[in-house]
């Protein structure tokens, strides 16, 4: 009984102290959150936003085709959200069908890039903006999404031209944002927490792809 009473008294004392510390921490935490939120929103002040030009691309070999603005969110990355990841997708359809759905405001999703079977690269969302491609808000805010034309159960869709063009694109993204070229930072959609997607699928050759990305990353720009 004595031990139990001492324990109760100790809990009460700790509780009072914790309340005081907790209140202070909550105030400090709120201030930090407010500061971080202001840092993320400052660019929305008129005259502060980074210059944007219609049709401008972030990757020189890409062609611009705009996605519906309902499928992405305006941002100022990496100043407001750091970019530390590339997420690999497969479209489960043709290139044309992927472009069409990304331009559909009812679709609710789109990736930054689509790589066609012949290696052609289309950019549909600027890298500084947040694309709705991963099905996870945190991963959307910190990543670039790359779609690849084809179906996960058709290995013949994953052509040499596609692998090579995509690897060059990923290498340039990694260089631009100082992203490590490894499988912790270059992942498949299936690896995003909470997703119900399986792409890029079992036929996506990760060993081959990562070798190509590393080679492109170390090659002269």
End-to-end separation: 75 Å
Name of the CATH first level: Alpha Beta
User: DSSP helix count?
Assistant: 5
CATH architecture: 3-Layer(aba) Sandwich
* Sequence of strands across the biggest β-sheet: 1-5-4-7-3-8
Name the average pLDDT.
85
Q: List low-pLDDT spans.
A: 1-28
> How are helices and strands ordered from N to C?
HEEEHEEEHEHEH
Strand content: 5-15%
Domain tally: 1
Most strands sheet: 6 strands, mixed
Structure summary:
38% of the residues lie in helices and 12% in strands.
Write the layout of secondary structure elements.
Layout lengths: L1 H40 L20 E3 L7 E2 L11 E4 L6 H8 L10 E3 L5 E3 L6 E2 L5 H6 E6 L11 H18 L8 E3 L17 H13 L3
Provide structural commentary.
This is N-acetylmuramoyl-L-alanine amidase. InterPro entries: Amidase/PGRP_sf, Amidase_domain, NAMLAA_amidase_2. It is an enzyme of class 3 (hydrolase). There is one protein chain. The protein is α/β, with parallel strands linked by helices and 221 residues long. The chain has a single domain, classed as Lysozyme-like, CATH 3.40.80. The protein is built from 5 helices and 8 strands. It has helices spanning 2-41, 95-102, 137-142, 160-177, 206-218; strands at 62-64, 72-73, 85-88, 113-115, 121-123, 130-131, 143-148, 186-188. The strands form 2 sheets. The protein has a 6-stranded mixed beta sheet, sandwiched between helices. A hairpin with a 5-residue loop joins strand 4 (113-115) and strand 5 (121-123). The longest helix is centred in the first third of the chain and has 40 residues, at 2-41. The protein starts with a helix and ends with a helix. The model is unreliable at 1-28 (pLDDT under 50).
